[in-house]
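Summary of Year 1 activities. Much of the first year was spent building the evaluation harness for sequence design. The harness presents a backbone, in tokenized form, and records the residue chosen at every position. We chose the following record to illustrate the format because it has been used consistently in internal testing since the harness was completed.
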């Protein structure tokens, strides 16, 4: 099928474009390049040997988006386009609600006009933000949602909007993919995560320390009620995550309305476990210091991914060591990201 991927030049989006092309789908990418590089799509084309139609378009621009849909018939949409920094969302909530919620509403209106009623939505584990104790784990799709920051709340609101839209019109099919902590890179080492500024997430920060762009990693808190005292999260390889999007898209017609699936390994890894796995990939120690906990950080978060396995035939296969090895290969070969 012909699939429109919003935010398709970004980290998860570009890896999903590779997976879609390798599964035999045709892909059209829409991306404003606000947090991504067009070089990622050139590397997608090099890996797959397939040209990717690209439109430098913001999902808030309804007329431009309409022209993309009018240019060629679209069968389904995978929707990544969004702002995604938790701390920034606290400082700029209006910008986040405008872009993440408003952009989705614009997309839905354009889809409706062009008779496209299938969408896979890039949601997030942040919709489970109110849960963080060991007794709450593993997180399942049927728990009450509750975010603790504006970014997470935009994901909750979009999920509710999609659920309401599907309830009102049975033509719509929505897949809500709640994924946990994407890491790793394409095994070729030519594609990976290329954050703008200081990385917000653990693995890209460790990678930048390892490659010499930063002095050391700060571990926030070593007194959590976990095995080694550091926070525990469910890390998933970006290529496993990309495969999950393809599986959801290809099974979407099987499910009525809006259906949520967790995408994760179902296993938690601590900050120190991740650090040591990355040290094994690099082959040397990585400088780090321990500091006080950060306000709002939960001790533990990992999911139950069994529904995705049951419904979609999908499961995450790559280990933490493989995640770190692939991430390091990308960073080592591209020390300055796509600008290398």
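For this record, the design step produced the sequence shown next.
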């Amino acid at each position: 099928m012909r699939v429109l991927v919003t935010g398709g030049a970004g980290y998860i989006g570009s890896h999903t474009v590779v997976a879609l092309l390798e599964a035999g789908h045709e892909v059209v990418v829409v991306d404003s390049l606000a947090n991504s590089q067009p070089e990622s799509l050139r590397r997608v084309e090099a890996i797959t040997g397939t040209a990717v139609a690209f439109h430098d378009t913001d999902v808030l621009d309804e007329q431009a988006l309409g022209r993309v849909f009018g240019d060629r018939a679209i069968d389904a949409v995978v929707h990544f386009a969004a702002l995604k920094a938790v701390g920034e969302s606290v400082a700029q909530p209006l910008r986040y609600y405008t872009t993440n919620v408003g952009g989705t509403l614009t997309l839905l209106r354009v889809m409706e006009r062009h008779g496209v009623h299938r969408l896979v939505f890039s949601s997030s584990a942040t919709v489970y933000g109110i849960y963080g104790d060991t007794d709450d784990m593993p997180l399942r799709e049927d728990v009450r949602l509750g975010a603790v920051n504006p970014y997470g709340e935009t994901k909750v609101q979009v999920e509710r909007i999609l659920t309401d839209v599907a309830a009102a019109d049975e033509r719509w099919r929505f897949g809500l993919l709640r994924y946990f902590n994407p890491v790793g890179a394409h095994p070729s080492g030519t594609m990976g995560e290329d954050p703008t500024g200081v990385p917000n997430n653990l693995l890209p920060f460790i990678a930048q320390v390892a490659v010499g762009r930063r002095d050391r990693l700060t571990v926030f808190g070593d007194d959590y009620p976990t095995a080694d005292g550091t926070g525990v999260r469910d890390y998933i390889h970006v290529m496993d995550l990309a495969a999950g999007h393809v599986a959801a898209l290809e099974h979407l017609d099987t499910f009525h309305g809006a259906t949520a699936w967790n995408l994760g390994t179902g296993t938690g890894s601590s900050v120190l476990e991740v650090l040591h796995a990355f040290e094994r990939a690099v082959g040397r120690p990585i400088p780090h210091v321990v500091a006080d906990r950060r306000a709002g950080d939960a001790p533990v978060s990992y999911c139950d991914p069994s529904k995705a396995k049951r419904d979609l035939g999908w499961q995450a296969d790559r280990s933490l060591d493989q995640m770190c090895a692939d991430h390091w290969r990308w960073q080592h070969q591209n020390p300055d990201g796509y600008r290398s």
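The radius of gyration is 19 Å. Quantitative recovery figures across the full test set are reported in Table 2.
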